[in-house]
TrEMBL record:
Domain of life: Bacteria
Organism in which the protein naturally occurs: Marinobacter flavimaris
NCBIfam families per the UniProt record, alphabetical: fkbM_fam
Keyword Methyltransferase listed: yes
Domain Methyltransferase FkbM, residue spans: 45-203
Upper taxonomic lineage: Bacteria, Pseudomonadati, Pseudomonadota, Gammaproteobacteria, Pseudomonadales
Keyword Methyltransferase: yes
Matches recorded under Pfam families: Methyltransf_21
UniProt protein name: FkbM family methyltransferase
């Protein structure tokens, strides 16, 4: 049986042949394989939801301190329970942004992962319906408060608030105090829910951070189109 027939047989049974090492399948594996000099000691999981990513990080980087940020009350409650057994993982009911203040989380009770920060203000806005008030701080301020000098791996998944999170880490970015940044990016120009890949790439290029890999590519499931809706894109500095 030739290689092509074997490949077709494997694909039919949900297996795949890849050349090794092959980047883009799992970011944690890629960090270990392609960035061996990066010692993952501090991880920020911004938009941690109920702890799915945190569990992966605890498995792959057992010596790392993992800081999970989740402003939604319901998600934060589940997150706290799910990470209880991970002694190096801590949860904070906070939103991270470009400046400190108070925000309003627009909560989707049907799809909790799609809750998003709608308002950023120094005042305290009123909440309506399923909306929730939340405290906002910046990555820079949080690091100063907790004596964190460097972030080795920053994951951002905030459903459209990602550029504000990045702006709140400006000092760390300028000093290259963040090794790896993974951001959920919109790949379809018609996708108005996620921040576009172009906007994120242009923002991070200002600090000389460039793409390292693309992960979890998702097609346009709301319309069932085959074009990409979003992907998680990892960036690293040229100096790494």
């Amino acid at each position: 049986m030739n290689k092509l027939k074997i490949k077709r047989l494997l694909l039919k049974n949900n297996f795949q042949l890849v050349k090794a090492p092959h980047k883009g399948l799992d970011i944690c594996q890629d960090i270990i394989e392609f960035l061996p000099d990066v010692d993952i000691k501090v991880i920020f999981d911004v938009g941690a939801n109920v702890g799915q990513s945190a569990a992966e990080y605890a498995f792959w980087f057992p010596r790392a301190s993992i800081y999970c940020f989740e402003p939604s009350k319901e998600n934060f409650s589940q997150l706290s329970r799910n990470i209880a057994s991970h002694r190096r993982t801590a949860a904070f009911q906070l939103a991270l942004g470009s400046e400190s203040g108070t925000g309003v989380m627009e909560v989707n009770k049907n799809i909790g992962v799609m809750s998003r920060l709608r308002t950023l203000s120094g005042d305290s806005p009123s909440s309506n319906g399923d909306n929730e008030l939340t405290k906002i701080t910046t990555i820079t301020e949080f690091c100063k408060e907790h004596s964190i000098e460097k972030i080795n791996y920053l994951k951002i998944d905030t459903e459209g608030h990602d550029l504000e999170v990045i702006s709140g880490a400006e000092n760390l970015l300028k000093e290259k105090k963040i090794d790896i940044i993974e951001v959920e990016a919109g790949m379809n120009p018609m996708n108005d829910w996620h921040v576009s890949y172009q906007s994120i790439q242009e923002k991070l290029a200002l600090y000389e951070y460039y793409p390292f890999g693309f992960y979890e590519q998702v097609h346009e499931w709301p319309t069932n189109q085959k074009i990409l809706r979003r992907a998680n894109v990892a960036f690293i500095p040229l100096s790494l």
